[in-house]
Amino acid sequence: MIAFEFPLGSCAVQSAEAVYQEAQSHFRKGEFAASFSKAREGFGKWPSGEWGWKFRLQAVEALAKTGNLQRASALLAAGGEPASPGLEARYKIDSANLSGGSDALKLLREAVPLANASHDPNMVCLAELFLGENETDPEQADIHAQASLRAARQAGDAFLLTWARLGRGYNRARFARYDEALPYFAAALATGQACGARALVAAIRGNQGWCYHKLGAYDHALDALRQAESSTAALGQRAERLKWLIEIGVLHLDRGDYGPAEAFEQQAAKLAGEVEDERLEAMAFHNLAQIALEKNNLAAARAYNDKVLASETRRSDEVSLAYTRLTLAELDHLSKDYAQAERDYRAVIEQAQKVSAKDLVWEGYAGLGSLYDECGKPHQAAAEYGHALEFIDREWKSLGSQDSQATYLTLHRVGLFQDYVNFLIKTGQPEKALEIAESARARLLNQQLERVGELPPDFDLPRLQRAAGASHTVILSYWLEPARSSVWMIGGGKLLRYDLPPGKEIEELVRKHTETVVHGGDPLARDGGSLALYKAVLAPVQALIPAGSNVIIVPDGALHQLDFETLVVPAPKPHYWIDDVAIAIAPSLRALQGNDRRAAPAPKLLLLGDPVLAGGEFLPLPNAKAEIAAVEECFPPANRAAFTGLDAVPAKYAEAEPGKFTNIHFATHATANLQSPLNSAIILSHQGENYKLYARDVAAVPLNAGLVTISACHSAGAKAYSGEGLMGFAWAFLQAGARNVIATLWDEDDAASVNLMRTLYTQMAAGATPARALRAAKLTLMHSEERFRTPYYWGPLQVFTREVARQ
Of 148, 106, 146, 141, which Cα lies nearest the Cα of 127? Predict the structure, then answer.
């Protein structure tokens, strides 16, 4: 243990209270060195009793904030335990924050009743705050976060209120409710800046950046994270700065910006060494190894990976070692040392089974499959790929919704499915390749919807072919890979597969085209890459799709962001693809069903919209009332139920028994959550603190609706939804029983939506399917006024379906 002594000092002029208040004032401003110095001065004069403990704990907290964890721990352990409930609560909080691990939660649970016994709202606030941030159950965490906010308000302390709001937002974010966290961070930022809480403001900025990163808003994320990093550097918070350096590096890595990613991770590794945080140093080196692999710098990747191996061996971190050894196997594989790589993969499988790192087991098998494929041993490759899938199937059946620690979310992005699909294509098995691609897609979707233990239904190609033929439908299923992408076409009783460009190339073309569209540009008037995009994703199959067809598209990766209707077809003269076909989107081929078009029940409408919006996050929708009136006129008064204004609260949805309605319509804002689609939400009027109808709540209520329409704009300033998040959002309604969902891919123009909705429902009343009705509505809007001709106005609404419907 490091010895820690306070030199005696002179405090003859100031009282203990004044010295302590000055130490606390420095702490609240983020001046931790000054806070520590003042606390040490106070302890030199009043080393024992209640004041001695106050100064000691203040010094401990200041040391911890500057990353001096060993000195802080030594100082805390040197004085026994305080006697008063408030100081004992604070002692346990500091002990928990310094110890971490399983002991922390126990200490914090002991601290809360002590804080309550002290009748000090300041201490209650902090005890509830830290307990909330450590609870593993979301509901319990939120209960303690709310208690912390109440205590902060009772104390009338802006600093504590800032901290409590930050804590409430953090609890939302760590349970993947990133969009919900942001308003709490915004409120915390306002009070934190007003009271000069510089360290808290830095933490708020960092957490905002984390949320933006998870939501795919990379520019906002980078701006917030840079502010957090520079502020913590200025405040001398080296441990906090280290966190944000690593996060900035990961953000750049996710964007494919390997130069900046490497620079930030190198800074992080250097700083981690200085503060002697070996765990975070290993994390930075691991990230550097991944960056080097992406840059095909195998020597650098191996050097970094060796450092990680050495660190994890010293710390006896057996689980992390298994992952690092997989990187070693990949390095030997890429170096074409096949014999050593084979031994490495076998060792990874063996160790992964010992430490229950189940995702590594199938990654080891997948690596062997890829290795044998490269070595010209197709039978052995097929066997190892088969072992990987058998293992995944076995584990999948045993998983429940609480077992999401398994990294099945990465299924689509790791080598197994991409390599196996490529192997099957190369060996002349296109149907099997499509089956494996769909297996990955369906599992990923199930994982996002927290249905991990449910295996998707078997792939039934003959059934799909019959349904497609009976409904004059062509089905296109896309699969994007780094080296070679694919599109499968099902139609006319045939299954055909075509090569497409690499995924990165398609991603960049989609980005440019979508940017043109959402900024109001006209791809017909200026190319901007739209012709190249057509050639990349549609040209191989477009000539085989008769005009007037129904088309169902199963997108992949960046294609989730693309409105296929806006593709520019060059012949016989340039036109949008919407002029030729009616398009719907499906999450997976396995989800599609035939539809025998039995006599439908009498149309009944459930409508919620035009809510009273509180706060500045969501702007009023001036045309919501007109849209609601346009929709209502398509249904007899006796066959509709509408909840608007103050009545449009989340609870009304379930109370209205939505299963009784053929059509459900929302006219309001919505938010789509990429990482956790069931936390996507429709924005309604406040009901206490609740104003969001979550997709998870919708999915729990059975539906029979032929169509659910979410005519919703995103919050102001957002350019576009994340397509995959929107897919999950729509799929929650489809899973509840709806056959079709209409939702917006980017911000919908409030004025344009009125006429769109009127035509949509009129067409459906005349017997059109949702896809054909929406196409007719869009074409009508395109030709109504010159300004509505561009895709920005008619493009955002998309039909998501689970049926291959006859017209």
Answer: 148
The proportion of the chain whose per-residue pLDDT surpasses 70, expressed as a percent, equals: 89
**Up-side HSE of residue 322: CA atoms within 13 Å toward CB?**
20
**Cα torsion through 117, 118, 121, 126, rounded to 10:** -90
Separation in Å, CA 787 to CA 112, 341, 520, 752, 757: 61, 60, 10, 10, 18
Residue 749 is given by DSSP the state: P
- Residue 492 and residue 474: Cα distance in Å, rounded? 8
> What is the C-alpha separation between 417 and 366, in angstroms, rounded?
8
Residues contacting 439, CB < 8 A, separation 6+: 389, 417, 456, 459
d(CA 379, CA 373): 9
**How far, rounded to the nearest angstrom, does the alpha carbon of residue 267 sit from its chain's CA centroid?**
26
CB 453 within 8 A of CB 398: yes
If you write DSSP's letter for every residue of 175-211 in order, what string do you get?
TT-HHHHHHHHHHHHHHHHHHT-HHHHHHHHHHHHHH
Quick check: 484 pLDDT over 60?
Answer: yes
Task: Read off the pLDDT of residues 599-620 as tens digits, 9 standing for 90 and up.
Answer: 667 899 999 999 998 766 777 8
Q: How far apart are CA 799 and CA 550, in angstroms?
A: 12
The pLDDT value recorded for residue 103 is: 86
- Written as one letter, the residue type at 639 is N
How far does CA 103 lie from the centroid of its chain?
A: 30
Q: How far is CA 802 from CA 562, 591, 599, 730, 761, in A?
A: 19, 6, 19, 11, 20
- Per residue in 457-476, pLDDT (tens digit) is 667 888 888 888 888 899 99
Q: How far apart are the first and last CA of the chain?
A: 78
The encoded tokens of residue 684 equal 């309604």
What is the number of other CB atoms lying within 10 angstroms of the CB of residue 305? 23
389-to-241, 383, 394 alpha-carbon distances in Å: 41, 10, 8
Dist. CA 765–CA 507, nearest whole Å: 38
Overall average pLDDT of the 300-320 stretch: 92
Closest CA to 741 of 591, 519, 581: 591
Specify whether the CB–CB gap between 625 and 645 falls below 8 A: no
Q: Are 759 and 797 in contact (CB under 8 A)?
A: no
> Residue 604's closest CA among 632, 580, 579?
632
Tell me which DSSP letter residue 720 carries. B
Count of CA atoms in the C-beta half-sphere (13 A) of 607: 26
Closest CA to 550 of 471, 478, 463: 471
Backbone φ and ψ for 545, nearest 5 degrees, come out as -105, 110
> What tokens appear for 502 in the block?
């690499």
Residue with tokens 């909840």: 643
